[in-house]
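Q: What changes when pyridoxal-5'-phosphate is included in the input?
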Amino acid sequence: MIYINDTGAQYETIKDDISRVTQAVMERSYFVLGENVAAFEHELAAYCGTQYAVGVANGTDAIALACRALGIGQGDEVLTSTHTATFSALGISMVGATPTFADIEADTGNIDPAKIEAAITPRTKAIMPVHLYGQMADMDPIVEIGRKHGIPVIEDSAQAHGATYRGRKAGSIGVLGCFSFYPTKNLGAYGDAGALVTNDPQLAEVLHELRNGGQRTRYDHVRVGVNSRIDELQAAILRVKLPHLDEWNRARRKNAQRYDEMLRITNVPVQPVAIREYGETCMHLYVIRVRTEDRDPLIAHLTENGIAAMIHYPVPVHLSKAYSFLGLAEGSFPEAESMAREIITLPMYAELTETQAQTVVDVVAAYYTMGIGARG
Ligand SMILES: *Cc1c(COP(=O)(O)O)cnc(C)c1O
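A: The predicted holo structure follows.
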């Protein structure tokens, strides 16, 4: 079986360090918001090139807390992408605000800067591009639109740990950057965890208070906060992994180049998601586009041959049942809707071997050459 992610293969490479640091946490017996969290925040900020980082319980909370810290709530809108994990929109909904959308670029799947301005209304209080599949959205025009309209930019960087845009790291360009450390992300904890990064000292202070019940110091509740704390075990694990992130991202990019080349040689009608020259993707997911009629049969063929394949994401947020109340009918965002019908995610992780990649490509090619394909 070749998995989409193989967190077990990664664990084998860092096992001893993980055992050492988790045991140390247990022996010290201090479990929530301790020295590992403080050190991890410091190290993450340094890595991202920001002044501050604030650890929280998960990536969805990071988005909700970004909105909260910016004073966004009921009656406000946050403009984001509809082709994303629904959790992007849920973070916005958590503060009572409404997600609104602009369509995507057909080739990258990222929000299309050219479509953002038309979607801005007097209620729009933030623009939140999602750096999809590990590739950053085209930030220069997005930041420029934000500046022109006086609207802050929040980066949903949950898939973009270590990705860059014109030399700047994901999360460091907007007013706030939101990270998830869900186990299968490029930087993953062994459970749920998340963080925000920022250069704004006031926002950092507010976020430190918000995540811990709104307390400035113990029992001094200065605002109505939440419990979105990050624990010492996850922080200790993330501190082991962070120094490996660049090397893991390099391996992912190399694996993607291999896939690109192998697929090109087979000459089958499969198109990898486009990668722009303006930065470096961290290749969170390797996604290909196929003809709509081939998509589901090809996934079935891969599965039958021991290769995990998935769809990220099969339903655009605006067409989900949860967001049907927005009243956005099919046809509202045609590029996102057609992408959702044509994409397949293939296995991608640092430890994926050349042999495994070749097996995946051979199975994809066999679908077409053996005449299993809808148009064989
Ligand atoms: C994973 C993810 C989230 C949510 O993060 P959690 O830690 O699972 O809450 C939000 N946005 C995107 C784009 C994601 O991939």
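Observations recorded in class: Residues 7-28 form the longest helix (22 residues).
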